[in-house]
Amino acid sequence: MRQTFEILNVKCGGCANTLKKSLAEDFGEVEVDLESDPRKITLEVKESEIQMLSQKLRALGYPLTTDELSKIEKFTMGAKSFVSCAIGKMDS
């Protein structure tokens, strides 16, 4: 089922590129809306795969807005997203 999720820490095309490449193998084509705030991704995901999606997003530093994060986790997600963004910029 095609679903849309709000995610944190996405700021630019480098972030979007990382998300598209990192999630493509498991979820196919990923659309990233850089115009909305918070940012949104749309992709094909089954209900049983949402937890896996959440974990993959967290590993990249782009948690779902619905994820409950401690202050340390928020800081860590920001640092991870910075690195993921830089990688996305180099890969484009």
Main attributes?
92 residues, alpha+beta, Alpha-Beta Plaits
Tell me about this structure:
This protein is 51% helix and 16% strand. It is α+β, with helices and mostly antiparallel strands. Strands 1-3-2 form a 3-stranded antiparallel sheet, covered by helices on one side. A hairpin with a 5-residue loop joins strand 2 and strand 3 (39-44).
Described by strand count, sense and barrel closure, the largest sheet is: 3 strands, antiparallel
Oligomeric nature of the chains: single chain
| Total domain modules | 1
Unreliable segments of 5+ consecutive residues: none
Give a short summary of the structure.
It is built from three helices and three strands. It has 92 residues and is of the alpha+beta class.
Topology summary:
Blueprint: E1 2-7, H1 13-27, E2 31-33, E3 39-44, H2 50-60, H3 71-91
Antiparallel strand pairs: 1-3, 2-3
